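Run log, item B.
One chain of 425 residues. Sequence copied directly from the ordering sheet:
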Amino acid sequence: MHRRSALLAAWIFVSAAATGCAALRYEDPGIPAAPEANAAAAATAAEPAIAPAEAASGPIATAPVDPAIDPATRATSPRPSTPTRARLAQRDRERELDDAEPETGRDWRELSRRAREHAQNGEFDEAETLLEQAALQLKDRRPTSTRRRTVFGLRARLAHDLAALGETERADLLADRLFEEVRAEPALGDTALVTLARATAERRRAAAREAGRSESQLPLLALAFDASLASPASRERLGLAFEVSGKALRDGDLVLARRAIDQAIDDARITAPADRMQAAALQIYKARIELAARELGSAEDSAQTALRLFEREEADPSSRGVAEATLGQILAEKGELERALELGRGAYARLEGPQPLVAHARRQIPACLARIEWLAGEREAASAHYREALSVPADGSERDDNLIADIKAALVELETRASVSAAAP
């Protein structure tokens, strides 16, 4: 009888907890969450949060529930702290502070609602004016305020929509104001800013390219990257960090490049821990940044890690060939020329294999081999392989454009040095 009463009490406790969870409500700012955010929330609700140390140690053993334990005691026991619970607690505290502050003037919610209606009707002047009023009303709140971020996100989406409709001048004016606000208060930026910054950078890069100009969009993307660090890991931030690392490497900002690639690697461990192919690819890019910084020992370790992952996953010949060629180039820079030539030529042999390689690998592998041969004193072979790399049709991507530019510069330098050597008495 006692056991039956205890089980009944436990059942009542679980039912009450479930009812309490179902009744929990968060403030609805009137903006639907992004699909990625919904998926992340669903995953968080479906699975218990696992601390990094627990995740690394394997499956967690679940202790059986002792029916002799008083349910009231279990209910009052402190729950273990996790990063997810800490973020939710911080968000709830900020919302409580927001709710404690009285509204002034016209309610920002009403301004935002009317702005959305005007935007849906194509009345963008009215929408922008109303959102500016809402932003002004909330300007004294903390940058992490849910209300401020909500209005900021609506303004960012409006700028994005204006650009999509071809009103680029107005879109740029609004976008630049938003970027300045985030420079002053980085915590104000959120996913809407990241989306706007990436879209604006790509549009401006395309316009500059069409006009025959070369404009780096790194400052804009770095702004979005820094703002994104206030949010949890996501695939969107991973992609942004990867993009920033590549552009920073191109512009010679190796500190930013290293910081961004490290963030991408960390985010990949959280968002896609089982994707070893992605992890290996990120290690290759990290190795190239370290090579550019002349951190040859770290570069070798990163390339070795990538190659081991590719081999373990039985990766395609394009991935394995690029990893081998990259490692070979690093070893050549270290002076280990015999092993470097072996790796570079082994990677090059994959070009004649039964499985065709992607265009980027067909350009990257001979370019790496050319650099190895150059360092080994085989300048004619190096020149031939550089020219072979340039003969691969361009795919139009910025990454490929940058690689072509690097190969052309290397070829000019190689042949200039050869001419000087030949002319010397």
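Observations after the first pass:
- The chain has 20 helices and no strands.
- Residues 53 and 60 are 11 Å apart (CA to CA).
Flagged for discussion on Thursday.
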